[in-house]
Amino acid sequence: RHAPGLVIGDKLERRNRMESSIVLSDMTPGEKAFALWLEHLLNKIQAAEYRQLNLESLSVLSSFLRQNPTVRIHEVFALDAIIGHAVRFAYVERHPEREAEYNQHKSDAWSFFYAASPADTSSWLVAALRNLLLPRPV
pLDDT digit string (tens) for 4-44? Predict the structure, then answer.
């Protein structure tokens, strides 16, 4: 209800997109077909660590939208966007002096993120969502 769709995995692959109109018109809450579709998309992600990050992102996104019911996303939302922003937030929080050259340290940033606790990754995912979706004070 919050976005026209959700992309899980490769955003360029059209079959990785869950269109909201289809989900809302063809499925009821808790329907097994939805769970199977979601599981199918997640299973297409070959790296187990990244698949887990997508699961955590879905959980955080769901909780965030329940707490912010008026938030509307006007484009198809890619989980990769949340994760990428969260990795950057985590790295810059740890190394603020390297913010300007973040692109040179992406590999280190991802390694650090994968090694972090689920509680830490969740907090960075929430920070990424806030940054992407909530209006900024002027």
Answer: 899 998 888 888 888 887 877 877 767 788 888 889 999 99
SS3 100: helix
Quickly list DSSP for 42-81.
HHT---HHHHHHHHHHHHHHHHHHHH-TT----SPEEHHH
Structure tokens at 124: 């960075």
Cα angle for residues 13, 123, 92 (degrees, 5° grid): 85
> Which segments in the chain show pLDDT lower than 50?
none
CB contact at 8 A, 135 and 70: no
pTM for this entry: 0.85
Non-local (6+) Cβ contacts of 111 within 8 A are none
